[in-house]
Amino acid sequence: ENIGSGYSTMLFKNQLYLGTSNGLYKVSLNNSQNFSFIKSKLELIKNTEGEVRSLSIVNDQLLLGHHNGAFLINGSTATPIDNSSGYWTFLPMSNVFPSSLMVAGSYLGLSFFDFSNGQFYRNKINAQFESARFVVVENEHSVWVAHPYKGLYHITINADRTTSIKLYDQNKGLLSANNNYIFKIKNRIVAATENGLYEYNEQKDAFEFSSYFKN
C-alpha cells in the first residue's frame, strides 16, 4: 500500500508497527512464521497522522516520536504524553528494569519523564539547547547528544535536578563540529567523525583519536 516513506519499524506484542511520513500503521502477525502469508490489512493508528520520527520500547511500553509530540501506543490508539515539541527518540536512564527515569530527544533539546504505576509523567528536569536527534545515555546522571553541525553536547543531571550543558567541538579534541555522531560502545563514549573514531577522555575532558578502535 502507498503509506508514504518508511522511517521506523518495531515488532511489539505480536504486532508489526510501521512508522511513515503519513502516520503510524500496524498489522497483526497472527503468530505467523512467514510474514508473506499474512492476510491482515494495514491499520492507521488513531492520532498519528503526519511525520513519524521513531518507535522505541521503554519499560515494556511502545513510544512514538512524532512531529506533533511524544505518544504512548496502546492497541490502535496513540495517547499524547507531551505535545510541547516534536520528538525524536526515547531512552531509559537506568539499566535496572523498569527505569524510573526516561530521557527523550526533542526538537528543543532533552525532556525527562518519571515512570510510576505503569505511566510516564513529564518532570521538571529540563535541558533545552538544540535539536536532540542522536542521544546516548552514559549513566543515570549523564547524557550525550550529537548535533549535525554544532558538535557534541554533554548534559549532566545535578543533585538538585538542574542540568549542566557543555559543548564539545573543534576546541575539545574534535577536528570539526560537523557530521559527528555519538555512541556508547563497550562502556566507552565514542564519536564517529569525518576523520575517524574518537573517544572521550574523562581525565582530559576532551575527545582524542581512539587507539582502542584504531584497527
In short:
The chain is 0% helix and 57% strand. By secondary structure, it is an all-beta fold.
Task: Write up this protein.
The chain is 0% helix and 57% strand. With 215 residues, it is mainly β. The strands form five sheets. A four-stranded antiparallel beta sheet has the order 1-2-3-4, with no helix packed on it. Strands 5-6-7-8 form a four-stranded antiparallel beta sheet, with no helix packed on it. Strands 9-10-11-12 form a four-stranded antiparallel beta sheet, with no helix packed on it. Strand 18 (188-193) and strand 19 (196-201) form a beta hairpin. The radius of gyration is 19 Å and the shape is globular.
Structural class: mainly beta
**Any low-confidence stretches, pLDDT <50, length ≥5?**
none
Strand order of the largest sheet: 1-2-3-4
Number of helices: 0
Described by strand count, sense and barrel closure, the largest sheet is: 4 strands, antiparallel
Question: Strand tally, please?
Answer: 20
State the helicity in percent bands: under 10%
Order of helices and strands: EEEEEEEEEEEEEEEEEEEE
* Spatial separation of the terminal alpha carbons: 45 Å
Radius of gyration: 19 Å
**What is the arithmetic mean of pLDDT?**
93
Topology:
Blueprint: E1 6-12, E2 15-20, E3 23-28, E4 43-44, E5 52-58, E6 61-66, E7 69-74, E8 77-82, E9 87-92, E10 101-106, E11 109-116, E12 119-128, E13 134-139, E14 142-147, E15 151-157, E16 163-168, E17 181-185, E18 188-193, E19 196-201, E20 206-209
